[in-house]
Amino acid sequence: MDLLIKNGILVTPTDCFKADIGVDEGKIVAISSKMPAEADDVVDAKGKYVLPGGIDPHTHMEMPFMGATTVDDFEYGTIAAAFGGVTTIIDFAIQPKDKTFLETIALWKAKADPKVVTDYALHVAVTNLTEDLIKEIPDVQKAGVQSFKLFMPYRKEGLMSDDGRIFRMLEESRKLNFLVQLHAENNSILEMLIERNVNAGKLSAEYHAKSRPNYCEGEAINRGLAMAHATNGNLYIVHMSTKEGLMELRRWKMMGANVFGETCPHYLVLNDEKYLSPKGRRYIMSPPLRGKADNEALWDGLFDHSLDTVGTDHCTFTDAQKDLGKDNFTKVPNGVPGVETMIPLLYSEGVRRRKMSINRLVEMTALNPAKLFGLYPRKGTLNIGSDADIVIFDPDFELQLSRENLHSKIDYSIYEEFTVKGMPTYTFVRGKPVVYNREYVGKKGSGKYVHAIKPQF
Ligand SMILES: [Zn+2]
After folding, report:
1. Cβ distance 263 to 295 under 8 Å?
2. How remote is the CA of residue 52 from the centroid of ligand 1, in Å?
3. What is the percent of the chain where pLDDT is above 90?
4. Which CATH number fits the domain that encloses residue 36?
5. 8 Å CB contact between 69 and 62
6. Disulfide check for 202: which of 79, 207, 388, 430 has CB 3.0–4.6 Å away?
């Protein structure tokens, strides 16, 4: 046996139990309470949790956007992921307007393959949906991508899909069994509000949030979900930030729509007061941070299973890049870091502070994304035959989430004021250590593309 993790408490979505876990040739081969201690490497996890490796279903590594490129490339981004207990990221391959979906996937693989230290899978972010491209989808599914993101906003940036195209894609999602992801904000209202604020000389960071009010998201989510219901399509709303949107998701789930929701750590633990600080532009992302009532509503949504997953929308721009918009919020590259801090924040703020079960944490961060995006049962679970993506999590390890304690290339932390209790201390990807007792021991390019299979909805 290559690796034996002894004496830990294994966590699944339903149980916590003390067992040893054995790994050979990258797979979990044994889970037992009486394992002979024979392996090339034996790690004692006494007093620690043993979790299935996290899956972050929403990252943007090395992504060009708004005149800048995210500073975490596939190497630094996945090193940060590994320190945060994430063993698979699902990144968005953004379709250049003149490229097919398969060409887009090839472009992203060429960037990721030489650099990743964890495994990765891909979604296609669609910017130019034509009937010819719809015909290409079965081949894209054969190439291992089962999810396609459409944007309701960003008309001027050239990313927007109108309602007709969203409806068309939802029809197809039912026939071919893939997942449509939606960035839901009402484009024409927010465009009008941005223009009004800019014309009035209201250019500071707080007007970013004021130009994209809760209503803009709630209305758009409702519209998307209604279309999913009408077409019987499969729809996943990315980065949900408002209580209004959550109410719509609950309602349409009750109506029997095949719909799912994701929120992000920053919508759970940060609020829009951040925009009033001198570094307010660090917190500019879309949708924006909301009020405290929204924070608590989203936690409720995680508790009552209205929300299915947490993704980070990891999209890192340095202070210098954010300064592109220091005099005008519309010029600030949108995005915040998150891949390293997601699981620690969910543990400290969810499990410790709000009494969420650690089983639910594992369900949201491993099992559910694995199932929705076609990575299960290879990923997302601790079971015989699954990939040995394993995290040893020390519930007593305290860490301030300051810049010098984190591994992203970004030059600040948005969670400086948070000290978490509970951190991953070992991260194994297919049985190989990437983080070993909080030391980086991974290898650039050792991560693999994960070929997603058709999900079962
Ligand atoms: Zn995103």
Report:
1. no
2. 24
3. 97
4. 2.30.40.10
5. yes
6. 207
CA of 313 to the centre of ligand 1 (A): 5
Dist. CA 43 → ligand 1 center (Å)? 36
List pLDDT tens digits, range 382-403.
999 999 999 999 999 999 999 9
Measured in angstroms, how far is the CA atom of residue 60 from the centroid of ligand 1? Answer: 7
Residue 272 is classified by DSSP as G
3-state class (DSSP) for residue 158: coil
Using the mean position of ligand 1's atoms as its centre, give its distance from the Cα of residue 287 in Å.
10
Q: How many CB atoms lie within 10 A of CB 392?
A: 22
User: Position of tokens 């139990």?
Assistant: 17
State the DSSP string of 185-220.
--HHHHHHHHHHHHHTT--STHHHHHTS-HHHHHHH
Are residues 68 and 197 located together in one domain of the fold? yes
Residue 420: per-residue pLDDT: 98
pLDDT of residue 36: 80
Expressed as residue numbers, the domain containing 423 is 3-51+384-440
Same domain, yes or no, for 119 and 230? yes
How far apart CA 282 and CA 424 sit, in angstroms, is 26
pLDDT-wise least confident of 27-36, 346-355, 384-393: 27-36
Give the distance (Å) from ligand 1 centre to CA of residue 102.
20
Q: How far is the CA of 23 from the centre of ligand 1 (A)?
A: 34
Q: Is 239 left (phi over 0), alpha (psi -120 to 50) or beta?
A: left
| Count of other CB atoms within 10 angstroms of residue 383 | 13
Q: How far is the CA of 267 from the centre of ligand 1 (A)?
A: 13
Ligand 1 center to 59 CA (angstroms): 6
The answer to whether residues 332 and 401 belong to one domain is no
Report DSSP letters for 334-378, one per residue: P-B--TTTHHHHIIIIIIIHH---HHHHHIIIIIHHHHHTT-TTT
Rounded distance from Cα 439 to ligand 1 centre (Å): 29
